[in-house]
């Protein structure tokens, strides 16, 4: 039987990525279950690092294969992947709230659901000045703020990387992602003490993880080809950093600050390190 060649946009199965997703889900669930895990806020940043790694990797493979970026295909794939589950979640939540016969909560939930479908849930909650961890009457759809960050990332990253590739190919993308990572880290550190709600919800102050994942996707082949880098125990270092941040952070106050960018670094160290293990 003739095998089908792998498409440039396909990502090979990586069990460590699924394990890292499971860890992120566990932290998010723990936070909403009221378990006292100081670093539970790391969960979304782990997701962001994974998204940056996977999405930039898809776009980069297309560019290097000479296919360029098909914006229509890219956005169509993202819509097919996200919209059905997102719409089902929102409709089910609104239906449950309607059964509770609370018109005020129902109206707010419907409004939040419309914002989530438009990719603006994070902005909506920021405008409402909703403290994610301290709100006395949180929206049932509050966890969808992170979907807003990711959807906004999906909207801009093909445009940025396409332009960067035309200017300087891989070097142009490297500079673009590095500027985003550094700028977002500085913004998170400076804005968290003064505007903690906006620092928590906005893409510019959470883009460090997405950019770090993108940098890993860009530099992964060099890491795999370098004997010196392969000898560094990146995976244990990344796992130890995540464990330390999870256990030692003084709660969710003051997040993301510097802890958020560190969780992005830890996530990409774990992903990159696991990729080198089979080559040793």
Describe the structure.
- This protein has 280 residues and is an all-alpha fold.
- Helices cover 74% and strands 0% of the residues.
- Helix 2 (42-64) packs across helix 11 and helix 4 crosses helix 5 (121-127).
- The radius of gyration is 19 Å and the shape is globular.
Main attributes of the structure:
disordered N terminus, mainly alpha, globular, 74% helix, 280 residues
What does this entry show, briefly?
With 280 residues, the chain is mainly α.
Give the terminus-to-terminus CA distance: 33 Å
Give the overall pLDDT as a whole number. Answer: 87
Count of runs of 4 or more consecutive helical residues: 11
- Provide the succession of SSEs: HHHHHHHHHHH
What share of the residues lie within helices? over 70%
Low-confidence stretches: 1-9
* SS content category: mainly alpha
- What Rg do the Cα atoms give? 19 Å
Characterize the biggest β-sheet.
Answer: none
The general outline is globular
Record field, number of beta strands? 0
Assess the beta-strand content as a share of residues: under 5%
């Amino acid at each position: 039987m003739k095998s089908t060649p792998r498409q440039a946009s396909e990502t090979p199965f990586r069990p460590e990525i699924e394990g890292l997703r499971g860890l992120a889900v566990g932290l998010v669930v723990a936070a909403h279950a009221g378990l006292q895990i100081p670093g539970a806020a790391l969960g979304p940043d782990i997701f962001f690092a994974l998204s940056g790694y996977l999405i930039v990797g898809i776009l980069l493979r297309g560019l290097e294969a000479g296919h360029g970026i098909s914006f229509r295909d890219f956005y169509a794939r993202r819509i097919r992947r996200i919209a059905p589950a997102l719409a089902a979640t929102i409709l089910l939540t609104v239906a449950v709230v309607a059964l509770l016969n609370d018109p005020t909560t129902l109206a707010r939930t419907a409004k939040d659901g419309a914002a989530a479908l438009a990719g603006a849930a994070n902005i909506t909650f920021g405008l409402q000045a909703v403290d994610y961890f301290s709100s006395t009457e949180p929206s049932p759809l509050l966890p969808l703020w992170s979907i807003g960050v990711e959807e906004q990332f999906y909207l801009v990253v093909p445009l940025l990387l396409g332009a960067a590739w035309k200017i300087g190919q891989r070097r142009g993308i490297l500079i673009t992602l590095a500027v985003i990572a550094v700028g977002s880290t500085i913004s998170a550190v400076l804005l968290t003490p003064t505007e903690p709600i906006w620092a928590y919800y906005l893409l510019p102050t959470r883009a460090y993880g997405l950019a770090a994942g993108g940098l890993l996707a860009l530099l992964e082949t060099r890491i795999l080809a370098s004997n010196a880098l392969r000898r560094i125990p990146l995976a244990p270092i990344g796992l130890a950093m995540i464990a330390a941040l999870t256990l030692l952070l003084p709660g969710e106050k003051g997040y993301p600050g510097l802890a958020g960018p560190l969780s992005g670094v830890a996530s990409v160290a774990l992903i990159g390190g696991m990729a080198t293990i089979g080559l040793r």
